[in-house]
Amino acid sequence: MGRRRRFPAEALVFLAIWPWLATAGDAGRLDSRLSGGGPVTVRLSPFAKPREIPKTLDGMRRLTGDDFLCVERGDCLVAGDLGPGEYEYLVDGVLDYCSAALRRVFFNRDSGAGKKVSIFVFRDYASYEAGLRRFIGMEPISPYGHYGHLQKYIVINYETGPGTLVHELIHSLMSEDFPEAPIWIAEGLASLYEQCRAEGDVLKGDDNWRLPELKEALANGSLVSLSRLLAMSPADFRDNRESLNYAEARYFCKYLEEMGALPRIYQDFRRRPEKDPAGILFVANTLGKPFEAIEADWRRWLRFQYWRE
Ligand SMILES: [Zn+2]
């Protein structure tokens, strides 16, 4: 199934193949498939001083100029230099559909924030690099994109696919809806839907490239326990096992989704995070069994998962 199919004109559509991630914090490592080697650390220039991001359509037009098409969709302002067909797919398909589906299921608390999210979509890496310098005032910190929490903006290199937009969109929605969310559920959900399909009016996560690393760690006994993963601080999560931690969080969220438990866990957790900041209690209560039994079941389920590029 093509990765740029129209959405939602078809009843069942795969969103995209692409990886992944990258909020500014995500962006420490590059995947070897794109970097052509092992993980690379990219750091924000210490001289970088992000510019003020426009929060009106006119402001976006003035900033980006004639090469960028600017539209407003709900609380999103989108500027992109894609061709008209791809732009329409990304804005009227992916953004519109995924935003509605994610709000319906997860991010439905009325935060009252109402601040616009400014989204910059660049057709390829050269445009992305130049655009980040001109519009944001920084060097790329990831080859894919990132979400800027303070000014509420998203930048994506569209070469990495529409899944990158969905990943960053989830960070933007969750930052209003559940700002206390621990990193396992923030990155687990964002990574789950970076590759997804539409089923009726909801999204379902599909298998993706993160699985082989996870299964290898499961096989060689190097996987950390779920209880340890859920208790990780952002710094722990992003240590030298970062990509494995993303994979484990993604596939734990996928398991919870398949159990029909993910929305309820998210919403119970969001309502009362002070009861258990790691969320272990909410997972155990929703699934109705001790967390050790959940971990054992998840590991059995994981052995059955399969993905081929
Ligand atoms: Zn992320």
What's the architecture of the largest domain, going by CATH?
Answer: 3-Layer(aba) Sandwich
Instruction: List bound small molecules.
Output: zinc ion
Q: If helices are DSSP runs of H or I spanning 4 or more residues, what is the number of helices? A: 13
Number of strands: 7
CATH class term of the largest domain: Alpha Beta
What are the defining features of this structure?
309 residues, two-stranded antiparallel sheet, 2 domains, binds zinc ion, five-stranded mixed β-sheet, 11% strand, alpha/beta, 7 strands, Glutaredoxin, 13 helices
Describe how the helices and strands are arranged:
Elements lengths: L31 H4 L21 H8 L4 E5 L2 E5 L3 H22 L11 E6 L2 H12 L8 E4 L4 E5 L4 H16 L5 H10 L3 E4 L2 E4 L5 H9 L6 H5 L3 H4 L4 H17 L3 H10 L8 H8 L3 H13 L6
Helix pairs in contact: 3-5, 5-6, 6-10, 7-10
The structure holds zinc ion.
Zinc ion (ZN) binds next to helix 5 and helix 6.
Describe the structure.
It is a single chain. By secondary structure, the protein is α/β, with parallel strands linked by helices. It folds into 2 domains: 26-202, Glutaredoxin (3-Layer(aba) Sandwich); 210-303, no CATH class. The chain has 13 helices and 7 strands. The protein has helices at residues 32-35, 57-64, 84-105, 125-136, 162-177, 183-192, 211-219, 226-230, 234-237, 242-258, 262-271, 280-287, 291-303, and strands at residues 69-73, 76-80, 117-122, 145-148, 153-157, 196-199, 202-205. The strands form 2 sheets. It has a 5-stranded mixed beta sheet with strand order 1-2-3-5-4, with helices on both faces. The longest helix is centred in the first third of the chain and has 22 residues, at 84-105. Bound molecules: zinc ion. Zinc ion is lined by residues 21, 23, 26, 167, 171, 187, 190.
